[in-house]
Protein: ATP-dependent 6-phosphofructokinase
Organism: Thalassospira marina
Amino acid sequence: MRIGILTSGGDCAGLNAVILAVVRRAVLGYGWDVVGIRQGTHGLLQRPPATIPLNDYVNNDGMLRLGGTILGTINKGNPFHYPMPDGSFADRSDEVIAGYEALGLDALIGIGGDGSMAILRELAQKGGINLVGIPKTIDNDLAHTEYSVGFTTAVNVAVDAMDRLQPTAASHERIMILEVMGRDAGHIALFAGIAGGADVILIPEMDYDLEDMAQHCLNIRKRGRNHALVIVAEAIKTDKGDIVTSGHDGQKAVYGGVGHWLAEKLGERTGWETRVTVLGHLQRGGTPSPRDRLIASTFGVHAVDLIAQQKFDRVVAWQQRRVVDVPMADVITGPRLVDTGETMVSTAIGLGAYMGTPPMVKKTAKTV
Amino acid sequence: MRIGILTSGGDCAGLNAVILAVVRRAVLGYGWDVVGIRQGTHGLLQRPPATIPLNDYVNNDGMLRLGGTILGTINKGNPFHYPMPDGSFADRSDEVIAGYEALGLDALIGIGGDGSMAILRELAQKGGINLVGIPKTIDNDLAHTEYSVGFTTAVNVAVDAMDRLQPTAASHERIMILEVMGRDAGHIALFAGIAGGADVILIPEMDYDLEDMAQHCLNIRKRGRNHALVIVAEAIKTDKGDIVTSGHDGQKAVYGGVGHWLAEKLGERTGWETRVTVLGHLQRGGTPSPRDRLIASTFGVHAVDLIAQQKFDRVVAWQQRRVVDVPMADVITGPRLVDTGETMVSTAIGLGAYMGTPPMVKKTAKTV
Amino acid sequence: MRIGILTSGGDCAGLNAVILAVVRRAVLGYGWDVVGIRQGTHGLLQRPPATIPLNDYVNNDGMLRLGGTILGTINKGNPFHYPMPDGSFADRSDEVIAGYEALGLDALIGIGGDGSMAILRELAQKGGINLVGIPKTIDNDLAHTEYSVGFTTAVNVAVDAMDRLQPTAASHERIMILEVMGRDAGHIALFAGIAGGADVILIPEMDYDLEDMAQHCLNIRKRGRNHALVIVAEAIKTDKGDIVTSGHDGQKAVYGGVGHWLAEKLGERTGWETRVTVLGHLQRGGTPSPRDRLIASTFGVHAVDLIAQQKFDRVVAWQQRRVVDVPMADVITGPRLVDTGETMVSTAIGLGAYMGTPPMVKKTAKTV
Amino acid sequence: MRIGILTSGGDCAGLNAVILAVVRRAVLGYGWDVVGIRQGTHGLLQRPPATIPLNDYVNNDGMLRLGGTILGTINKGNPFHYPMPDGSFADRSDEVIAGYEALGLDALIGIGGDGSMAILRELAQKGGINLVGIPKTIDNDLAHTEYSVGFTTAVNVAVDAMDRLQPTAASHERIMILEVMGRDAGHIALFAGIAGGADVILIPEMDYDLEDMAQHCLNIRKRGRNHALVIVAEAIKTDKGDIVTSGHDGQKAVYGGVGHWLAEKLGERTGWETRVTVLGHLQRGGTPSPRDRLIASTFGVHAVDLIAQQKFDRVVAWQQRRVVDVPMADVITGPRLVDTGETMVSTAIGLGAYMGTPPMVKKTAKTV
């Protein structure tokens, strides 16, 4: 047997731990060969396909601790709708499938998020690829798994930032705003907001009122707290009801963003000095947390076991402290948003944080 | 309303985060008073009872990040079987209950593990105390909750140690042995072993064979890995079938222990240089991980909400990324051991680690 | 004896460690009283002056680990040139001195940077205050001391960010730009650039050429490195020779900044995808590094010893791994810039980093 | 040109950063080849000598962050007095020199401590090797350099442990004892003791009295501090005047040690509950601190520059925040002990820590 593995979409912490687990299980447990495909589906468009033999990584513990992905994950576009030099789009899926076939693989493990997984599944169905998916996304917005690889590390980075901002906020009596990732789903802001002691937590799933928020900050001051911590996802509504996003993943760097917009609004309304920090790419990289390594390891081992059992078109998942697998079709149904009735929201509000009010009706996004 | 809170048993990271969450929910949400009882039930034996008013902590974010417990948790003994100066034991439960009554509290939140919770429940039933329990234990061996406060931080400390030991093991071509806590249940060793890349993981729940273990290490060497990492819980069997423990929590410091015993045995059998590190109390203290703060926060808020609903004799718990509550009677049934058929064990073995074989038949413990 | 202590200017890590050391030395060693003055000289404008008795902090180890300053350090302005509500400026130095006199202190320890120290000295000379200075600044730009309190932690935060950015840069084959503090002096960028493996290090003290820098990045790519790391201080020259700054400490949050400006320029010239991270206030707060605590402790103890010896108008300093003291007049002579002939610069260039060419002739700053 | 590099003696954090700096300077700056020699002088006894070509590491940033040494550093013994299988000792220096000559190198960079450096120098003088030394030792006991590679990371690990032990000590009202490395020189204990807030700091260079120490702890309790932190180097005197050591680097794991011995003595005299943690090998491994990477980088670059200038028999060193070089003969004169009149000692005592009294007259060491 000979299996392939690729990483797709934005990188995150724990991808190399998944790769190590796959290699260890496949090589030590089954005696298979493992081939790494470079740069997601982009590597399959190369001739010959761009690959790395992975068996020799079996002894490489460093992979557990190494951020990013040794396979690379540059994104040149959806192969079914591939941007061409002349500005048009082409269906290059046949080329990708031919690339895959040229490798003589028995199965493919695709590590990706919602979007990547949907494309990989489409390729698998068209090309007869034996596909198993492993969920990764710092946003943790995949359905049917409590955790995706990369989320816990992203939360830790955000909490670490909150821990640094709190003392300086108190020393200078300021409102400190931390902008974190989460374009559709606010899981990072919510988890990190609770663990980091935020006074205001703004997520895409919930509506808010600038006046109420400002009043909440003033009330906090009144009860003797000389500073406030705000955590905000990268996409929230404006006071006009438009959605504002910071566009980190866009084609070019964006000047300004949600955090700065909010700082201005909140500063005006409270008379309080405000400062903004945008975490950005710090959330993606770096050594994965123990939790992410653990989840990555269970996912990698289980994915190989699924292949051994010839169970394809499935995605591994984490439920009730166990690894399970679910149909891929169930996972690619769009982002799992924060359930505004869930524990995390009630906890945040129970701790005295301002979160606004659900539900938010989505409008067209506007990048500030 | 006026509620009390105490911490009992060994300290761990996240206790102060629980206290903060309780204070914030009770004071901001319900307008109650919160009284901290010092040193577990020991504080209730003082006259007047030793307490700290906690309402003013409502603005103290630092509690989120502060290890240990501001309430203290020295353990002078079970009030139902209290060790007296003359060497005898006395039932001092009535004194504890009288101390509690003197405080004029409407309810009590007890933060503790298996053993503490059982004693608190007995006191509550005898004294008519409205009790709600919050599970904490670095060993994570409480039933009906996926996580207890303190476990994740303890695992992180152990993984951090593994990360430091691996490069020096490789540089010197050694077997490095890390001894971690877990007298009855091996959850720390198992989680940290996977996340830290252990080649051998020994837990109280599983039997092992020294010759097999040594052979496993030699096989690893044969496949080109120049070092090995071993993680071992503080209580495992000897080669004679006796249970060996390191006795960290005993009355006096113990010379030697499980790790050193194993180092000698493994060194003899492999001819490999071995070194031992005993993590000990490092696992208890320090800043709680974001995960522990999050769980602590949900637990604290929910415990207060239970009191508001007059739901007593219950323990808050974490299940499927939600906070729930379960009958206290269900939780104090003894340690939840590692299920040797579960994901973590199959993952560890799938990664190529040696774990021995279940089940272990318990014999009398012997401290080496 | 009764001594006062205040913190002035931007906060940084290690201020509370200084305060703890002063209290321990003064209380345990000399039996004096220590009075904390709130909010720098602002606290002395209050009636009565805003103070905190500090003797009871003698047992508070937590101060060693606590970021920011418990005394606060809001900056309302130079008392000799104080901004009044009507937009005018007033000399309020007599009020500050009167506030100080009202406290009945025998000496004052002022913890501050270049600017704060100059103002405190002017006040001391006018009011006959027995002043000893302790240098703190994340920028490390004070003369006659190898290190000021706060610098090492700021560098560590920046290196931590570099460590997170490198794997994601490699995974996506990008140029990652990290903007750090340092308006006049580039010590943070230089130290963190070396320790974090930067390919380009831009500091205010050195000139550069955008075309050369872009060529350097392309050369790196040619030699097989698929990404580049750039670290840039918050104030550098534009390609027109103007100085660009990010204005973090200005009155309002600034949209954009040096990093984003550079990303655009470098992206255009290399065709390489660029991403920007602005560290901002993360560099100030959080638990001080062991080194900062060590320096803070030696500074605090030595400052009290100077008072005991009636040696005033001096600043403690760190030279050759020893604490010394120097005349305050020597320290307030303006920022100590990076010496472009020094070890750090030659090391960075020796490692293959692009740093441009000295010297830079200063022009008028322009905030982008 | 073609230069060799080897690491010798116990590993520490920052060795790979030195190697990276040497490679970058030699390859990018001078166009030389760099050959890594495996396992110190042991690699030169192999036929052919065990080596790794290092030029390709020029792009490997990971080396900055990787603990240990990729070259390995197993110690089989001094080649001038090499332990033979029959128990005798042989002079194998000619074989080592022949191995070196077989590599056709123009110069050798030896990274090591006091002992390794002396042996390398003897080899160099006998074999006409162009040698440059780079100081590394977690103990920081090399003369003429303020810092050696590895020291700062070791201190950080120890302070991190102190930070974890303090909250649990306070929660349980205990004396916590941390045993750190330092057989001859107590720099780690001293630096970490100050930065970590130790109440007692014991180092090999200073004498102490158990009764005084116990009284100091009782006095601390009297002033309202409910716990005490003790940091102790691995070799101190007993109450009989014998020197006790923990023998970590001996041939076999040792049961017990200095920390446990002290715990018993101190517990008996104070009636206070004591607990011990032995840091051991945790101090060696893991990601180097930014400071260690910085020093490693300046050392590596400067060592190559010395070779380019044909300056041999010299050791690079750190003085006054500059890299310099000194004659190797000056460095190998034995360990640089803590100067009991220096800043660190007076700071520790000034903070209220018990350190005993200098000087200690050395007696024969006895391993407990």
DSSP finds twelve helices and 16 strands in chain C. Residues 248-255, 361-368 of chain C have pLDDT under 50 and may be disordered. Residues 153-284+338-351 of chain C form a domain with the Rossmann fold fold (CATH 3.40.50.460).
